[in-house]
C-alpha cells in the first residue's frame, strides 16, 4: 500500500477526493467525518443544482472547475443510475435597468463555454420556456440540471470502500501536529497517523486550518439561506429554474425558483448572516461563533459596505410578505399562499479576509504535508470531482515529484 492519506470532512468534496485517491490504488485513504452521516451540512442542504458556469469570472478556478465538474457529475450519475434532470435555467432581466448586467452574464457564459446558451429578447419566446415569467430579456442555459448531492456522496462513499478506503464517522478532528514528516490527527475516538492530510471541512475549514498553524485568514462567515416550498398544486407556475440577474456587488444570487430532481419547487434562498456555523434556524445561536465573527478585523468594513443588503435579507427572512414581494417580481401570478412552508435551510461557508472582503474564488492553502481547502462555496458540489482532481494534481502529485 502507498502513502497514507487522511481526508477531513465527509461532504461531497471530501468524499470525491477520497474516491479519486482510493481508486488510483496508490494510496491508503481514510475519511474522518464528525457527524454520524455523510453530507450532513452544505452538501445535504443545498438546492441540488448542477451549474453550467454562467456567472463566474472567466479563467477563475470556479469557471474552469465548474465546466469540467458538470460533465463529470453528469457522467457519474449516468454510470451509477442516479437521477439527473436537465430542467434548464432562465436568468431573467425583469426590466431594462438589468440589461447591462444580463449582457455581462451572457459574455461570461460565452467565455466559460456554457453549452447551447441562448440570449432571448423576444418576450413571446421567453414565455415558451417559462409561460408565467415576467421579464424583458433573458439568457437560457438548457443544460443546467438538478441532482441529489447527498445520494451522489453516498454512492461515492461506496466506491471508496470498494477500493479499500475507510470512512470513519463521528470522528471530529480536535488536534493535529506534524510528526516525523507526517501528521498525527487526534479525534475523541482515537488517533491516526498519516503521511498527508487534505482538509475539506467546509463550515469548519478555518478552525481545522488553525489546528495546524495556518494563517487565520480567510475566516469563515456563515450565511444561512432559507427556502420556501411552492405549493404542489401550483407547481405548474415553474417549469425549470428561474434566476434573477445577480448584483455584481454581492456573492449571492438572490431569490430564485428551482425545480428539484424529485419535482418539488423551492423559492430561495436568501442570505442571512447565521448566528452559528451550523445554525439552520434563527434559534440556533452560538455565542462563541458570533463573537469570533464580530472580533474579526474584517467585520466592521464588511458591515459598513453591505449593511443595507443585510437589513433587506434579514427583513425578508422575518417578514413573509417581503420575501413574497421579491419572488413575485418574476411570477406575477404568484400568491402569498403559494409559499406554503419554509421547508429547509442551508448554511454557506463564505470565506472573508481581514479587510472585510468576501472571497469569490475557490482557495487552497498548503502547510507542510497538510492541504487545506479554505474557500469552496457554490459551485463546489457541481465541481466536486474536478476539485478533487485539481487538488491531487496541483498539491499531492507535485509535492511528491
What does this protein look like?
There is one protein chain. The chain has 401 residues and is α+β, with helices and mostly antiparallel strands. Helices cover 33% and strands 26% of the residues. The chain contains eleven helices and 20 strands. The chain has helices at residues 12-24, 42-45, 61-80, 99-111, 123-129, 149-162, 205-211, 287-295, 299-318, 320-328, 384-400, and strands spanning 3-8, 27-32, 49-50, 89-93, 118-120, 137-141, 145-146, 166-168, 175-179, 182-187, 190-194, 196-199, 219-230, 241-244, 256-259, 265-268, 272-273, 339-352, 363-367, 370-375. The strands form four sheets. Strands 4, 5, 6, 13, 14, 15, 16, 17 and 18 form a nine-stranded mixed β-sheet that branches. The protein has a six-stranded mixed β-sheet with strand order 8-2-1-12-20-19, with helices on both faces. It has a three-stranded antiparallel β-sheet with strand order 9-10-11, with no helix packed on it. The chain is globular, with a radius of gyration of 21 Å. The model has no long low-confidence stretch (mean pLDDT 90).
Q: Brief description of this entry?
A:
33% of the residues lie in helices and 26% in strands. It has helices at residues 12-24, 42-45, 61-80, 99-111, 123-129, 149-162, 205-211, 287-295, 299-318, 320-328, 384-400, and strands at residues 3-8, 27-32, 49-50, 89-93, 118-120, 137-141, 145-146, 166-168, 175-179, 182-187, 190-194, 196-199, 219-230, 241-244, 256-259, 265-268, 272-273, 339-352, 363-367, 370-375.
